[in-house]
Specification:
Two copies of one chain form a homodimer.
Chain A: H1 2-7, E1 12-15, H2 32-37, E2 45-49, E3 53-57, H3 62-69, E4 74-78, H4 87-94, E5 100-102, H5 110-122, E6 126-128, E7 150-151, H6 154-157, H7 161-174, E8 179-182, H8 185-192, E9 194-195, E10 208-212, E11 216-219, H9 227-235, E12 238-241, H10 246-251, E13 258-261, H11 268-273, E14 279-282, H12 286-292, H13 296-325, H14 332-344, E15 349-352, E16 357-360, E17 383-389, E18 391-393, E19 396-397, E20 400-406, H15 411-428, E21 431-433, H16 438-451, E22 461-463, E23 472-477, E24 491-494, E25 497-500, E26 504-507, E27 510-520, E28 523-530, H17 548-565, H18 571-581
Parallel strand pairs in A: 1-5, 3-4, 5-6, 8-13, 11-12, 13-14
Antiparallel strand pairs in A: 1-2, 2-3, 7-9, 8-10, 10-11, 15-18, 16-17, 17-20, 18-19, 21-28, 22-23, 24-27, 25-26, 27-28
Helix pairs in contact in A: 13-14, 15-16, 17-18
């Protein structure tokens, strides 16, 4: 690759994690950053110069990246730590003026490219946006996936394809535009009620779409469409074009046409293909917002999905306890496999919604570490065990994290766990006025950790798709402000954590739904409804640190968990669960 | 004015509150919005069309504006309420395409004009930026103030004019610029250690300044400079130019020159005067940030100023109680006068830092209502009395709000007051990591109100100048994110409130200083030190609603108040104060 760079007179090359749809999880075909660096985390950017190279990633992946970059010659830059320059600043200070930086414009958002161009050019650097660094060096490049598309039943979606297209058309008209481009794989899947298996963990198919005031087009490889999908598209008047023709299509838009574009979601190569005589109407993607606000069928389905998830978790954790009691060896991987089997047995289970994270002891402090046979660790008494997992059920996507103690908890473990739990409760029980953004609530979940000079480096909450991506926007609960107001029927995670490097990790995650709470003369107030169903580990709760209200919250939550799960559990698990839900029960394993 | 608009073919005219320095408090010469509308609040914008007119203001002023706009024919638009369009949206929906909107570019920031231009032009409207709507109609236009400038002693400023100019030059060099323009009146005063009396409540003089890598210029009317100030400027090599010559000066900058500009602080007319062959280096004003981080002398001076303020408040509230006990009539105005006298008696007192707000009963719910002889109300048992006041002392500027009950408090008053206090305490005792912005902490102060479906419409905290403007940036604690991180030695207010229209208002405001708390492996953590010294009204505290930690906070704070104030109080006030600080003391009046 460095030879190619030299040949093309490119001094630096930036390789992000994303694909042309700016997805978080990408098909192997686009795992360029992983291929060049060996680092497998879901987020990270590699920058290659002739004499040096660097990887930028966030605190979730510091430890994993350190391990996976060993002997790679790639420096690790820890994002979010004071003193770490962002990669653009680093490039500016490492490159002489007049130098060319190469990127592949298809895997960067228009927004990012425009900002980068401005910044680099004011530093005298040139950004080349059509530099494809892999064409020669990546010999065994995996092909684009070609898996079949299937129709997502309206009884799960709660809204038909034509209703959704109409909703989108209304947004197009409101913006005084003629059309909008759908680039996110989950946006295309949502709008047309179709799903696929092109990407691991996300039931999506690789496609673009364009919806105009009077037409709907999908850009997809025809080979992926079974006959029933073709007739379905015919029925809804959705025209099918080749996947690779989208750029040409855009370049042929007529003069005076007005296209609604979200520059954060449309890659630069697509944007660049739009002729200058076409007007760009810049807006946040209306599809993201429509998709984020769940309908009643989706909410009922999600409640059913978390119930099945809770049953599966109960089976798995009950099994773990019994295995350990019997002196049998259980490892992170064998537990993950058991949990996977328990989920698979549930009705309408489709796939896991992301790779299960099972972090025993110090591994739990590697926020999103993936366990492999090489680093698989036995679960033994004397430390904490963190399990972050979820399922894609036809009726909804789930995401839940629990941390348990195996054996006796230390005082520090209990204090840490309780402070994380207090933050979880503070957010879960918050009331807040209409118009509130996630950034305003984020500190509720962190305050008890901050009081102890502790913190966690990831966001507190992300949106969750419906039988779609486990991470979706636009809403979130994070330190950074994205301007999106929380609205009723938005689904989010509530997941504070704490990670002590070399010791253990704690994360407590439930799914929450935004609901209207009350209307008063002071305005309309919202609250969260906690959906996920599995008890917290009472053996890790230091009751002295809980206020009366917090204790009441835990007891009420545990009672709900028991009431909802117990009808679906065998007798022995039911009484086991009963033992878990009392705050007076302090001997978990 | 409508005639002039017709004559100039201008269909709408926008009249903001600001002056060419974009000040909050402006000299009478620039009180155009007040003159045209009769509305006297510090924030508001009037829009005039041929057939209608509107005033936009925020919740602090809803009630006041309603009263003052009566029979004016000007509609009131309540900003921040859902359903209220901003004035630009309103103009777009009320004006036909092709229409011209006129503004005076000298009283709008470049940032605002650029945004407005973009927005109006995409709606087919034309923005004319040199429409001066008052030249003919305002007959008795007050002249520009001509008051003398004086030197601010370095023993109070803690840093010399040359040190400050060097700090600014360093920022200019860091930004690779040749110069920067100082447009804020407080920026000019801070940089040169000069003060004046051109604007009520803000000890500033009307001037611009320009600092280059090797020169410093002030644009000011020479008549305002006594001989000692002229020699002082000579001593520091500060060249003096006429106030009105700044535009010419900018228009004559040489080609290739690089000027650092904060588009939020430089008015559009100035910006427009800069030739296009001059490079604009866009940055947040480095002077704002330098000014916001107080030096040790400023901090010690501020601590002395709040002490004097506390003594003055004790004198005044003691007097109030004795007057009422003696059956004498006290009104909002007579109390404000008494308080003013008590402040005036303090060492190095210069002026009040803003118009004292004395709101008895329903008047307290008018957030920033100014009491006049016409609406002056007697302070009688049976309701709450809110007093928001502050002083400019040579050693520092203060800002404090207390709310007391006169007579017996109702259960609702106690509950409301306690919930406001709990928010105040939550913010005052927060620990937070380096990098935290005010927006992340704002909800700490609101949470207990939100739980009761209550809220307040103003910000929770603003920066405070040093013998300068009582409101200064860039840091704040608000719902809106301005991206500014809180840093040690920044001074802020902590002022949650609650306003029940027609009943009473509550606001509890102290000044707080950001301090380093602890450095751990999780980073550096900050905390606030509360500076203001006056007890909260224990008769309004519902102790049952306080946690153990909150009670401890109040007791510790009260103990500090007593320890610091008592040496400066006469015997009877000392024992009166002792009676006020015990949480067990429940009978304030």
């Amino acid at each position: 690759m460095r030879k190619l760079m030299q040949h093309c007179n490119v001094s630096a090359c930036i390789i992000p994690s994303s694909d042309p749809h700016l997805s978080e999880y990408v098909a192997a075909h686009w795992k360029r950053r992983e291929w060049i660096s060996g680092f497998e985390g879901s987020a990270g950017t590699v920058v290659v110069l002739q004499e040096q190279a660097g990887l930028w990633t966030d605190s979730r992946y510091f430890l994993q990246a350190e391990m996976q970059l060993t002997d790679s010659g790639i420096l690790l830059f820890k994002e979010g730590l004071s003193g770490t320059p962002d990669y653009q600043t680093w490039l500016i200070s490492n490159l002489p003026e007049g130098t060319v930086i190469g990127i592949d414009g298809t895997v960067f958002s228009t927004h990012d490219v425009e900002k980068m161009k401005k910044r680099f050019s004011s530093a005298g650097l040139v950004l080349k946006t059509d530099f494809i660094p892999f064409s020669e060096s990546w010999v065994n490049l995996p092909p684009l996936p070609q898996n079949s598309v299937f129709i997502y039943n309206e009884k799960f979606a709660g809204s038909s394809c034509s209703e959704k297209i109409n909703q989108i058309r209304q947004k197009i008209t409101e913006a005084k535009a003629d059309a909008t481009l759908l680039t996110g794989l989950d946006e295309v899947a949502w709008a047309f009620n179709i799903r696929g298996t092109d990407v691991e963990y996300n039931p999506v198919t690789i496609a673009y779409a364009m919806i105009t005031t009077d037409a709907a087009c999908i850009f997809i490889d025809k080979k992926k469409l079974p006959s029933e999908v073709i007739s379905y598209f015919n029925q809804y008047n959705i025209k099918v074009f080749p996947y690779t023709s989208v750029c040409n299509f855009l370049s042929e838009l007529p003069a005076g046409y007005r296209i609604l574009i979200d520059k954060q979601k449309v890659n630069f190569a697509l944007f660049d293909a739009i002729p200058t005589y076409v007007s760009i109407v810049e807006r946040n993607s209306p599809i993201s917002m429509l998709k984020a606000i769940k309908n009643e069928v989706e909410i009922a389905g999600t409640k059913n999905a978390v119930l099945k998830d809770g049953v599966a978790l109960t089976h798995a954790f009950y099994w773990l306890e019994k295995e350990l009691e019997a002196g049998r060896r259980v490892t992170e991987l064998s537990f993950a496999e058991k949990l996977s089997v328990c989920r698979t047995q549930q009705k309408d289970f489709f796939s896991e919604s992301f790779p299960t994270i099972t972090g025993y002891a110090a591994k739990g402090a590697i926020v999103h570490c993936i366990t492999t046979p090489e680093n698989d660790t036995e679960i033994r008494p004397g430390n904490l065990f963190l399990v972050d997992s979820g399922g894609n059920y036809l009726d909804g996507t789930t995401d839940i994290t629990r941390t348990i103690v195996v054996g006796e908890a230390t005082a520090q473990q209990k204090k840490d766990y309780t402070n994380v739990l207090k933050g979880h409760i503070a957010l879960a029980s918050a009331k807040f006025p209409e118009g509130t953004r996630g950034v305003q609530l984020d500190a509720f979940a962190r305050q008890f950790l901050w009081n102890e000079c502790l913190n966690y480096g990831h966001g507190t909450g992300h949106g969750i798709g419906h039988f779609l991506s486990v991470h979706e926007g636009p809403q979130n609960i994070r330190i950074k402000d994205n301007g999106v107001e929380l609205q009723p029927n938005m689904l989010l995670s509530n997941e504070p954590g704490l990670y002590r490097t070399g010791e253990y990790g704690i994360r407590l995650e439930n799914m929450v739904l935004v609901k209207e709470y009350k209307k008063t003369s002071f305005g309309c107030f919202f609250e969260f409804e906690t959906l996920s169903l599995f008890p917290f580990d009472t053996a890790l709760i230091d009751e002295k640190l809980l206020s009366g209200k917090e204790r009441e919250w835990v007891n009420n939550y545990h009672q709900m968990v028991y009431d909802k799960l117990s009808p679906f559990l065998p007798e022995e698990e039911r009484s086991w669960l009963m033992g878990k839900i009392s705050l007076d029960f302090t001997n978990y394993f």
